[in-house]
Amino acid sequence: MRAAGPNAALGEAGFTWLSLKSGLGARRDNGLFSFLLVCIAVVAALTVTGLLILAVGKSPMAAYSALVRGVFGTTARFAFALNKSTPYILAGVGVALCFRAKLINIGAEGQIAVGGIAATWIGLNLEAAPSALIIAMALAAGAAGGAAWSALAAIIWLKRHVHEVLCTLLLNFVGVLLVSEALHGEMGEPGAGFPQSALLGRSAWLPRLLPGTDLHLGFLMAVLAVIGGYLLLWRTTFGFRLRLLGASRRAATYAGIAEPRCALAVMTLAGALAGLAGAIEVLGVHYRLIEGFSAGFGFNAVAVALIASINPIGVLPAGLFFGCLEAGALAMQRELGVPSSLVFVIQGLTMVLVLCVMGLSPRGRRV
Amino acid sequence: MLQMRGICKSYGSVRANWDVDFDVPGGRIVGLLGENGSGKTTLMKVLFGIIAPDAGTITINGRRIAPQSPRDAIAAGLGMIHQHFTLVDAMSVTENVMLGWDRAGYWLRPREIASLIARASQSYGLKVDPDAIVGDLPHGQRQRVEIIKTILRGAELLILDEPTSNLSPPEVAGLLDVMRRLREQGRGIVFISHKLDEVLEICDEIVVLRDGEVAGRRAASGASKSELARMMICREVATAIEKRQHDAGPAVLHVAKLSWRDEQGMERLRNISFSLHAGEILAIAGVDGNGQSELADVLAGLRRATEGGIELAGQDITDEPASKRLEAGLAYIPVDRATTSLVPAMSVADNLALRDFDQVPLARHGWLCAEAIAARAAQRIAEFDIRAAGPDAPASSLSGGNQQKIVIAREVGRRPKALIALQPTWGLDPGATRFVVEQLITMRDAGGAILYVSSSLEEVLMLADRIAVMYGGRLSKPIARDAADITEIGLMMAGAGAMSAAAGRSA
Question: What is the pTM of this model?
Answer without folding.
Answer: 0.80
